[in-house]
Amino acid sequence: MTDDIHLAFAHPAERAAATSEGLRDRISLRDHIVSVEIGAFQAERGTTQRIRFNVVVEVRPLDGPIDDDVDRILSYDRVTEAIATEISAERINLLETLAERVAERILLEPQAVRTFVRIEKLDRGPGALGVEIARTRRDGLRLVSPADADVLHPRIVLLSQDAVHSAQLPKWLDELEHSGTPTILSVCAPDQDAPRAGAKMAQRRIDLLALEQACWVLAGRDSRCVVVETATELDWGMKNGQISVWAPSKLVLDAVDTSPPGPDDPVALAGWFAGQMAATELVCLGITAREAQVPVREVSILSETLV
Q1: Which of the residues 67, 69, 116, 193 has an alpha carbon 20 to 30 A from that of 273?
Q2: Contact 280, 154 (CB under 8 A)
């Protein structure tokens, strides 16, 4: 029992050695500490905390001599890059999620066979709070890098409130549904005063909620409009012919590499979202268009066609 307890808290390198089915070469990253905004609790938003990574990667044996050639081995940089990439992709709530994504990215490396990933929060209490996972790359399994995956390029349509309540809405949706291009809808909030809060973050939440209420109003007008909030749901919707209505709170609040426009400027926010989604175009229906990261087209509320 004492040995079991020791192994439970030992460095992943010792755990890898103890559970290996044979002798494998390993590389390790010890006590790699970064500061990042992470956590599911409200107190963890808007502030960074230190998290520590300990990672071990078991690698395939090399065929022939190394020849002192760095291109023949799995570089330590690939491990730290996997961590940096997943941290910068989006704000994450759970250490479990981050560990899983880091492990998956490491196992994309052709030399990697198995990896142990331990992540600990250092500032949430008197001790270190963490998780550890072990993941194996199964023989014959081809893991696909996000860079290799098919990238879908949707059309983003921003609807004014007049457009949401127009009698033309079913006809526009018919056209979008049969256009052959994945469609994601965004909406403007009703032109009415939202509750006011003294704190900037609180007001941002209130304004985002106003936009999301408008999303649900649109969904209530036509059952083909499905309100979604996560990148995973958006991706599924594009691949399955669903007309998604983007509820912006999660992606806006979780953005780490850019500063999204405020919800009080729905045109700029839709333009930012279109850029994030690598959209083919942004269609502004019943609202004045502005320049964005993607091609922008303005369509009158009186128009019978969108595409």
Answers
A1: 193
A2: yes
Q: Residue 127: is it exposed, middle or buried by C-beta count within 10 angstroms (0-12/13-18/19+)?
A: exposed
Distance CA 38, CA 151 (A): 27
Rounded-to-integer distance, Cα 208 and Cα 99, Å: 30
Question: SS in 3 state form for the chain?
Answer: CHHHHHHHHCCHHHHHHHHCCCCCEEEEEEEEEEEECECCCHHHCCCCEEEEEEEEEEECCCCCCCCCCHHHCCCHHHHHHHHHHHHHHCCECCHHHHHHHHHHHHCCCCCEEEEEEEEEECCCCCCCEEEEEEEECCCCCCCCCCCCCCCCCCEEEEECHHHHCCCCHHHHHHHHHCCCCCEEEEECCCCCCCCCCCCHHHHHHHHHHHHHHHHHHHHHHCCCEEEECCHHHHHHHHHCCCEEEECCHHHHHHCCCCCCCCCCCHHHHHHHHHHHCCCCEEEEECCCCCCCCCCEEEECCCCCCCC
Structure confidence by residue, pLDDT tens digits, 117-151: 999 999 988 889 999 999 998 644 444 444 444 57
- Using 50, 70 and 90 to split pLDDT, how confident is the model at 11? confident
**pTM score over 0.85:** no
CB 235 within 8 A of CB 246: no
Half-sphere exposure for 242 (CA within 13 Å, toward CB): 17
User: Shortest CA distance to 82 belongs to which of 112, 37, 38, 120?
Assistant: 112
Note the pLDDT of residue 257.
66
CB 277 within 8 A of CB 293: no
